[in-house]
Specification:
209 residues, alpha/beta, 8 helices, globular
């Protein structure tokens, strides 16, 4: 029987309630999430201040007060709501790193680019796809700037807001279990460490033949 894996310190995601930051834009590409000129760092941290850099600033370089993430009402938001096809463009994993470094645990959108979705799950960021009508309701309520929050329940695959919104979502089971347990790919490999070590011993002494 495989050994129980030790986690790498990633926080399990089960049920999360958080403030929503609205980004009413479709086809948000990874070069806008984290522009290429900020990809020189070799760590996974430190990208948060540059999240949506080009959208957050005016042509003169000042912070644009009209951009939601610059507004005090959305400070501390842990859930980002956006339009369809979020994370399209290049395959840069830095997009997920930047969102997480800025404090986001969840991105809500009608749909996601496949590579971004895989990168998000691999880093513990939860990409939740729900119907466009429900996302628009969430955007409408968040844009009032009154501290609108929703609950993301990965155990039951539900999004709730206590104001009548109750949306089910689907999530592939392998990814869901990894997020619930706070595991990454290395943890999954280490779960079979005893079998791997036994195979390596057999391979070394020739008994695997």
């Amino acid at each position: 029987m495989p050994a129980t894996p030790l986690t790498t310190g990633r926080q399990p995601f089960r049920v999360h309630e958080g403030r929503v930051a609205p980004l009413r834009r479709s086809h948000v590409d990874t070069d806008q999430i984290i522009p290429k000129n900020f990809l020189k760092r070799i760590e996974r941290t430190g990208f948060g201040p540059f999240l949506f850099h080009d959208w957050r600033r005016t042509a003169g370089g000042d912070l644009d007060p009209g951009f939601p993430l610059n507004q005090p009402a959305f400070a501390g938001a842990t859930i980002l709501a956006a339009g369809p096809n979020f994370g399209c463009g290049s395959s840069r994993e830095h997009a997920a790193w930047a969102l997480m470094d800025a404090g986001f645990r969840v991105v809500l959108a009608p749909s996601f680019a496949d590579i971004f979705r895989n990168n998000a799950v691999g880093n513990g960021l939860v990409p939740v796809a729900i119907g466009e009508a429900a996302v628009n309701t969430i955007l409408d309520r968040a844009e009032t700037g009154t501290g609108y929050s929703v609950t993301i329940d990965l155990e039951h695959c539900e999004v709730r807001d206590g104001r009548g919104l109750h949306e089910r979502f689907t999530f592939d089971e392998a990814s869901r279990q990894r997020l619930l347990a706070g595991l990454d790919e290395i943890d999954l490999i280490l779960a079979n460490e005893a079998e791997i070590s036994a195979f390596e011993r057999r391979r070394t002494d020739g008994t695997h033949l």
